[in-house]
Amino acid sequence: MAQTAEAPVTPPPIRDERVGRKSTLGRLLARPEAGAIAGAIVIYLFFFIIAPPFRNANSFSTTLYVTSTYGLMATPVALLMIGGEFDLSAGVAVTSSALCASLFSYEFTTNAWVGVAVALVLSLLIGFINGWVVVKTGIPSFLVTLGMFFMLQGLNLALTETITNQVASPDISTLQGFGSAQKVFASSFTVAGVNIRVTVIYWIVFVLIATWILLRTHVGNWIFSVGGSPASARAVGVPVAKMKIGLFMAVGFMAWFTGMHTLFQFNTIQSGQGVGNEFVYIIAAVVGGCLLTGGYGSAVGAAIGALIFGMVNQGIVYAGWNPYWFTFFVGALLLGAILLNTYIRRRAEASV
Amino acid sequence: MSTPQDSPPAGRHAAPGGTAPRRNGNGGPPLVRLVNAGKRYGAVIALHDITMEVSAGEVTCVLGDNGAGKSTLIKIIAGLHQPSSGTYEVDGTPVAFASPREALERGIATVYQDLAVVPLMPVWRNFFLGNEVRRGPRMDIPAMKKMCKDEMLAMGIDLRDVDQPIGTLSGGERQCVAISRAVHFGAKVLILDEPTAALGVKQSGVVLKYIIQARERGLGVIFITHNPHHAYPVGDRFLLLNRGASIGYFEKSQVTRDELTGLMAGGAELEQLSHELEGAGGAAAAIGHELSEDVEELGIAHQSTE
To answer: Same domain for B232 and B272?
Structure first.
């Protein structure tokens, strides 16, 4: 398939004597998630030493559960960031989806699965609108999704209040289909005496799927290109608009999935929750090596970013500290990760 | 994926008379031809009455200073714009491309100076971007890496590591990746948008070498540049643009390098400048005199086209 026709004036290739072989360590450090892995190990050891309950397998399982609820969303948010866009509405979109499923099936007394399906349509639609407006207008996604964030927040509060006269959705655990939906979205099982939530499994599976798409399929190639240089991507025929809309819809899909977990875990949803989580997802992606400017990053990195977040979140509790310290730590982590990533990437690029 | 250069032309574009236009070389219609093409943007005339062509195994150079209309010309040939007057023919039949994709399907590939590659992506991913080799849902990564390495080797570039981000290559090497990519994917006509503009002397030489290689492989090349010293050694035809209009269209036998240089420098304008300087007296007059001698020597006062 390559053109094997001999080029008539092919000079003999010359190996460049100025370039040395890259060491294995150098190759590892060149990976986007290198900094996050180092950080995760340090933080794990830190809490392992200072917080004895942290060493317990069951409490680590709890840490993993907390991680997975953020990690699920951090995965598509990382893909979106690699594709060069943001989604600030991701946090409240989770709540919107859960409220939609809950209120729909409760008010119309349908099977819980009907509400689940309606919520899926709504979530994909939110993602589509975000992506469509960004692509059609060229307005930065930061602004478009900021608008969507406030609109959804208002809708969550106002509609819930109007429909139920309360700030939370009604308990739907008596509805038909609730049991099976709960099994799918919010069950847990025990392995060797350790209780493991099913979201941890889902999280790992989704991270693996996202990694496979990114690194092994042409879609992944296109995601990197639309974030790295949309004009170049367009010039070689990559459908840039479709890719971006698709990525926003992937965030929508995962907002639905996370929302369904929250709903079937707690039976009821507070209409004001979810605000601020969009930053957690973005922090996880950035700590995991995603560039704010797009075109670089990894799904595994975002997963490790979420793990760092989860470990600090739980570690502070196990260490018996005032939980107010948590946000300080998250901010410091973000700043540290950005500095480390910038340093590593410069070194990686310089030492090729 | 790529087609051999000398494959027969697709039958669907046969001329109405019944004889299919021959692609190869002498006698057949040129791969790409513009006849009296012009482009207006509202009241602005960006391009006026341009006639040019390129055939297989030929290099047509388009020379002009900034704002001469070179990029408008590229956009027409690449399918981004349609000419507002005149005709655009591919293989002897008039075409009206709605998008660059359509031009690409007819084998007309454009390598833009600044749009060629995605810097943070590895060389092989850039090479196959938009044309990935698939095996089922996956990409055939080992095959792609090997093909990329081989194709670059055929161009005389030995890449240490096709996994390195393409942004770490030199400007000349990046251009070469973009050129060999277009060749690999079956381009019949290559439009090169100022491939040497941002490069040093040696790197420019490397790129010029690949232009010659592409020509030897039977491609038609449209080489846009503002440097006559780059154009003359590789070109077969030369189109000179100034302020949106043609100020000369030559075959290589009709023009010397000095004449080309003179035309590019704007002979008539230089002549006028020399008169003005001479009129100013003093040191300026001396410079003006020198300038007018140069103009005379180059024989560029009022070169007319064929």
So the answer is: no
A76, A78, A81, A87: CA torsion to nearest 10: 50
Nearest beta carbon to residue B129 from set A7, A236, A349? A236
Here the CATH number for the domain that contains residue B60 is 3.40.50.300
ipTM: 0.80
Say whether both B148 and B282 belong to one domain: no
Q: Which one of B99, B118, B135, B210 makes the best mutation probe of the A interface by having the most chain A beta carbons within 10 Å?
A: B118
Q: How far is CA A349 from CA A26, A73, B165, B169, in A?
A: 10, 30, 8, 10
- Residue A147's pLDDT band (cuts 50, 70, 90): very high
Per the domain annotation, does B261 fall within a domain? no
Contact B248, B305 (CB under 8 A): yes
**B224 and B189 part of one domain:** yes
**Residue-range definition of the domain harbouring residue B236:** 29-255
Last residue of a domain, one of B219, B235, B255: B255
Residues B172 and B34 in one domain: yes
The two three-digit tokens of residue B178, written as one number: 């973009």
Q: Does domain A32-45+52-187+196-350 have CATH number 3.90.1150?
A: no
- Using a CB-CB cut-off of 8 Å, the residues of chain B touching A349 are 165, 167-168
Whether residue B6 is contained in a domain is answered as: no
Domain identity same for B199 and B282: no
- Chain B residues touching A237 at Cβ < 8 A: 101, 104, 130-131
Q: How are beta strands A188-191 and B189-193 bridged, if at all?
A: unpaired
Asked if residue B32 lies in contact with residue B108, where contact means CB atoms within 8 angstroms, the answer is yes
Yes or no, beta carbons of B134 and A237 under 8 Å apart: no
Whether B205 and chain A come into contact, CB under 8 Å, resolves to no
Residues 6+ positions from B272 with CB-CB distance below 8 Å: none
Query: How do residues A233-285 score in pLDDT, each as one tens digit?
Result: 887 888 999 999 999 999 999 999 999 999 999 999 999 898 989 999 999 99
Mark out chain A residues that contact chain B at CB-CB < 8 A. 1-3, 5-11, 13-16, 19, 22, 216-218, 221-222, 224-225, 228-229, 231-233, 235-238, 291, 295-296, 349, 352
Cβ of A2 within 8 Å of Cβ of B151? The answer is yes
Asked whether residue B240 falls in the same domain as residue B270, the answer is: no
CA distance B109 to B75: 11
Predicted TM-score (pTM) above 0.95: no
